[in-house]
Design goal:
Layout (H helix, E strand, L loop, with lengths): L1 H11 L13 H15 L8 H7 L5 E5 L6 H9 L5 E5 L2 H15 L4 E4 L3 H7 L1 H4 L5 H9 L5 E5 H6 L7 H9 L2 E4 L7 H13 L4 E6 L4 H11 L4 E3 L2 H4 L4 E6 L7 H9 L4 E4 L3 H15 L4 E4 L5 H10 L8 E4 L3 H4 L6 E5 L3 H8 L11 E6 L13 H13 L6 H17 L1 H21 L8 H9 L6 E6 L3 H9 L11 E4 L2 H4 L4 E4 L4 E4 L3 E2 L3 E2 L2 H7 L12
Parallel strand pairs: 1-6, 1-7, 2-4, 2-5, 3-4, 5-6, 8-13, 9-11, 9-12, 10-11, 12-13, 14-17
Antiparallel strand pairs: 14-15, 16-17, 18-19
Helix pairs in contact: 1-8, 3-4, 6-8, 11-21, 19-20
Keywords: Antiviral defense, ATP-binding, Helicase, Hydrolase, Nucleotide-binding
InterPro entries: Cas3-like_dom, DEAD/DEAH_box_helicase_dom, DEAD_box_RNA_helicase, Helicase_ATP-bd, Helicase_C-like, Helicase_Cas3_CRISPR-ass_core, P-loop_NTPase
Family: Belongs to the DEAD box helicase family.
Length: 553
């Protein structure tokens, strides 16, 4: 039945041959791309030793650990080589989108698929998809079930195959013989890791690679019993001995020490500022805008509508001297950027390592200043980060040399990650994920849960405390309705912003279901520069609700 479904989709999509489902000469295409890129930079391409070792790791798979900016992705693709199919899994939609664009340059537009919650929108928007006619939905479906030669996806899309969501048979059938790459494995919450563990225990792909710049030994030990990978490939010692950052721990908070941020910017440095919460980032941005009136200022967090987030991602990718970029922890795994200076709230060491990976990324300059403010973490305790882990991280930071090597950070991260794994909260969440997936597969057998991917993710893949829901701020309702009248309902995603599901209860009067849009609309204020404001912050600043009456239809 699975083969018949695929044949039907191929025929409906106008695909003449099953040859289009397989990757051809992937290794040669990668080599050709890398040589061409190096030639355009006026140099010859040479593989690093760990990349060569990855290529020789064997078809079954391997573990890979290499610092950011050293060619980890190229090593993983070299290992995948001439596999018939490659599935590249990453933690966030932003990282998936960036990798999708990158791999299309290597393997060609036709060969690379995209799978995540907003993939349909991204594919329609791309120039490639715009050339398609009414067959385009079938082509998008091939991406969703991993039928393209190369598919870049969020991990949750792969897990849907093991939770018996729609098309689970096709997804699992096409994954079974693919080269599956799990990159940034350190970035997942324990509940998601529990789901992944149970899925791999029940059906491990024949070829699998697990990778991270800070791959913790403790995590490898937890997964080794089910993936049984004998080979660990690690970047060569000189790459770990790089000193990319000069670290200083200071009292105070980002808002209190705003003058120090501006001082670096006035010296012509591009400054990345990372706050632990959206509210703190909004406060700091507003203060820099209104009190300092700094002109080269940008803000990025998860409470912008999708259209504004996309625009901001492009704007901050190439900073000019004197730029101040205020962000939240979403920057840790979402953006491929390199700034001159990092100023950040105290956070767990693993999070700090990811933030520092966005400063002096290639390590080809003198150690970049990193200033960590101890007091800013107070507002995040109990909400964002565990207090014991923050205390351990502070202690580790105080004992590090002023200019730590990447190996120093790796060792520090290992100590913190082992503390995570020992905690009852981590153990409970991991066990819950394992048990949920095992229960679904045992209870359903060969049956399918007939829910949309979005409903499946909310019910089974996202832990209850982490649930969010997409809403549209009231000020964009008229634009959204015009899109529907024009037959462009698919573009409604441009106006959506995620909010924690707890907000629906805390600010109940600010949310209403708008039938014409078939979505929730919020009267909470939305500002083009600040994003969506919480009720408490809007009240504090005397900002009223979103303008315009909320008309239900």
């Amino acid at each position: 039945m699975t083969t018949l479904h695929l044949a039907d989709w191929l025929a409906s999509g106008g695909v003449a041959s099953v040859e289009g489902l397989y990757l051809k000469a992937g290794g040669a295409k990668l080599e050709r791309f890398l040589n061409h890129r190096s030639e355009s930079e006026g140099k010859a391409f040479v593989w690093r030793a760990f990349q060569v070792a990855a290529g020789r790791a064997g078809a079954s798979g391997f573990w890979l650990r290499a610092p950011t900016g050293t060619g980890k992705t190229e090593a993983l693709l070299r290992w995948a080589g001439d596999a018939n199919r490659v599935i590249y899994l990453l933690p966030t939609q932003a990282t998936v989108n960036a990798m999708w664009r990158r791999l299309r340059h290597i393997y060609g537009d036709d060969a690379v698929g995209l799978a995540h919650g907003r993939a349909s929108y991204m594919l329609r928007k791309s120039a490639f998809e715009e050339t398609l006619d009414d067959r385009s939905e079938n082509v998008r479906l091939l991406s969703r079930v991993f039928a393209r030669p190369v598919t870049v996806a969020t991990l949750d899309q792969w897990l849907l195959a093991h939770l018996h969501g729609r098309h689970w048979e096709e997804r699992r059938f096409l994954s079974r013989e693919a080269a599956v790459i799990l990159d940034e494995i350190h970035a997942y919450e324990p509940y998601m890791l529990g789901l992944l563990w149970a899925a791999l225990e029940r059906e491990r792909p024949r070829r699998i690679a697990l990778a991270s710049a800070t791959l913790p030994e403790a995590l490898m030990e937890r997964f080794q019993e089910i993936v049984s990978l004998d080979r660990i490939v690690e970047a060569e010692p000189p790459l770990w001995n790089r000193r990319r950052h000069r670290v200083e721990l200071r009292p105070g908070s980002l808002v209190e020490r705003m003058d120090e941020i501006v001082e670096f910017a006035r010296a012509g440095q591009a400054v990345l500022v990372v706050a632990n919460t959206v509210e703190e980032a909004q406060r700091l941005y507003r203060a820099l805008k209104e009190e300092v009136r700094w002109p080269k200022l940008h803000l990025y967090h998860g409470r912008f509508i999708f259209r504004d987030r996309e625009r901001r991602e492009q704007t901050v990718a190439h900073p000019v001297p004197g730029t101040i970029f205020v962000a939240t922890q979403v920057v840790e795994v979402s953006l491929d950027i390199s700034y001159d200076v990092l100023m950040t709230d105290l956070a767990p060491v693993d999070a700090l390592v990811q933030r520092m990976g966005r400063v002096n990324r290639s390590g080809n300059r003198a150690p970049a200043p990193v200033v960590i403010y101890e007091d800013g973490s107070a507002i995040a305790r109990g909400r964002v980060y565990d207090e014991e882990v923050l205390a351990l991280s502070r202690s580790i930071l105080k004992n590090l040399p002023p200019e730590p090597t990447d190996r120093d950070w790796l060792d520090a991260n290992e100590e913190v990650y082992r503390a995570y794994l020992r905690s009852h909260a981590w153990q409970d969440a991991f066990r819950e994920g394992r048990e949920n997936l095992e229960w679904v597969q045992t209870a359903l057998g060969t049956f399918t849960i007939d829910l949309s991917d979005e409903e499946m993710l909310q019910r089974f893949v996202t832990r209850r405390g982490s649930l969010s829901v997409d809403v549209i701020p009231l000020r964009f309702v008229d634009e959204a309705l015009r899109l529907i009248e024009q037959g462009d309902r698919w573009r409604m995603v441009e106006f959506q912003v995620p909010v924690r599901i707890q907000w629906l209860h805390a600010y109940r009067e600010a949310f209403e279901h708008y039938a014409s849009l078939d979505t929730l609309v919020t009267q909470l204020p939305y500002d083009d520069e600040l994003g969506l404001l919480s009720r408490s912050l809007a009240d504090e600043w005397g900002i009223g609700a979103s303008s315009g009456p909320l008309i239900l239809s």
